[in-house]
Amino acid sequence: MALMIPVENGEVVDGSASASSASSSSSKASEKSTSGLDKEAFLQLLVAQMQYQDPLEPMDNTEYISQLATFSQLEATQNLQDTISKGMANSLVGQYVILNVTDKLGNVNTIAGKVDYVMYENGEVFLAVNDGLYSLEDLDTVADSAYFEAFEMANAFSAMIAKLPSAGMVTAQDADAVKNAREVYDAMTPYQQGFVSKKDLEKLEELEKKIKELTGSSGTDDDTDETEKPDGTESPDEDEK
User: Fold this and answer.
1) Looking at the whole model, is its pTM more than 0.85?
2) DSSP class of 69
3) Reduced to 3 states, what is the DSSP secondary structure of residue 51?
4) Does 169 score more than 50 pLDDT?
5) What is the pLDDT of residue 209?
6) What pLDDT shows up at residue 85?
7) Coil, strand or helix at 203
8) Which residues lie closer than 8 Å to 226 by C-beta, 6 or more apart?
9) How do residues 13-44 score in pLDDT, each as one tens digit?
10) How many CB atoms lie within 10 A of CB 44?
């Protein structure tokens, strides 16, 4: 005759102390399984399986050995992952990193800066960047100083372009701001210019074209007549001398 144990709502219902203890252990294992099956939960499930097996049809010893081997493999894998994560995190100290951090509203914010130190808390690894702590899982890019500088300059240029009006709203009074944006872009190296988005560059070119239509010039010094004197008069041609 097989051993029958009533089950209700996924929990063992029994008046005995052993059943109550098993139910409590099973409940704790279930709570932890929401974040992944860890070593403790695996052992609790194995013990419960052994405790409530059918005494007339017990499990084969080879099956126990197989499950214990699976547990050992799980433990070794978790330990290896922890070692790799900590080693990688420690190597990031002093490096420039870019992180994509998701806030409570689901918006993704880009955080860029140098890793000051690494902190371990409750089994998680956190990177200290710009006076803030961010999970190692938010890491997107590890960059050298040249890459990071180009990334920052492209972001600054993008913010400058975003403050400029659209081509349909631009006026002659915006000529200096457009000219400054062009000077910033031209001052970049070709490598740094490669980080500038195509959209920002197209907007700048559209604004320059519109400013030229409004003012009759591109706003550069090259448009000044070379034969014009400081007092506004033109120099006589060589044939008239």
Assistant:
1) no
2) H
3) helix
4) yes
5) 94
6) 66
7) helix
8) none
9) 454 434 443 444 444 344 444 445 566 776 77
10) 20
Dist CA 148 CA 114 (whole Å) = 9
Mean pLDDT, the chain, as a whole number? 75
Q: Residue 93: what pLDDT?
A: 85
- Is the distance from CB of 31 to CB of 37 less than 8 angstroms? no
CA distance 156 to 179: 16
Lookup: tokens for 157: 């240029």
Give the Cα separation of 234 and 57 in Å (integer).
Answer: 112
Cβ neighbours around 155 below 10 Å, total: 15
User: Given the DSSP bridges, would you call strands 11-12 and 7-8 parallel, antiparallel or unpaired?
Assistant: antiparallel
**Residue 161 · residue 204 · CB < 8 Å:** yes
Which residues, at least 6 apart from 64, have a Cβ–Cβ distance to it below 8 Å? 50
Number of Cβ within 10 Å of residue 170's Cβ equals 21
Token pair of 80 as six digits: 């290896």
